[in-house]
Known about the structure:
- It contains five helices and eight strands.
- The strands form three sheets. The chain has a four-stranded antiparallel sheet with strand order 2-3-1-4. The protein has a two-stranded antiparallel sheet with strand order 5-8.
- The protein starts with a strand and ends with a strand.
- Helix 2 packs across helix 3.
- It has 130 residues and is α+β, with helices and mostly antiparallel strands.
- The protein has helices at residues 9-12, 16-24, 51-60, 84-88, 114-118; strands at 2-8, 29-36, 39-45, 66-67, 72-74, 94-96, 102-104, 124-126.
- The protein has two domains: 2-67, Alpha-Beta Plaits (2-Layer Sandwich); 72-126, Alpha-Beta Plaits (2-Layer Sandwich), CATH 3.30.70.
Amino acid sequence: MKLLLRFSSEMSKKPLIAEIILETGAKINIDRADVEAVGGETVLDVPDEKYEKVVALFRSKGIEPILLPTPILLDEAKCLHCGACVSVCPTEVFGFEHDWRLRFDAEKCIQCGVCITACPFFAISLMEGI
Length: 130
């Protein structure tokens, strides 16, 4: 499951993700991290079986994780299957089927936003509330 963590500059100085990994034994993958002087955000991929425990531990350490059930949305009505997103996606979320229609695999998304910028038809957007 994908989790979004937003944190203050004070929280970014602590090895919270490492602590969570050690305490839970979860093999957590950091899909994306953006850390600046005033804080930041990180997108994590957490194994389903460890999700509840990981979320509880983050909450106990002062971070409220946000579940990302679908990090990005593809509006099929706006998509013309041009492939602009295919060439820029670093994790192969997009590809072409044998009939040249666009293939979309949201599970691979690290929410980098490159596809959103690349789409000339504004068919790709971030999930509302993120």
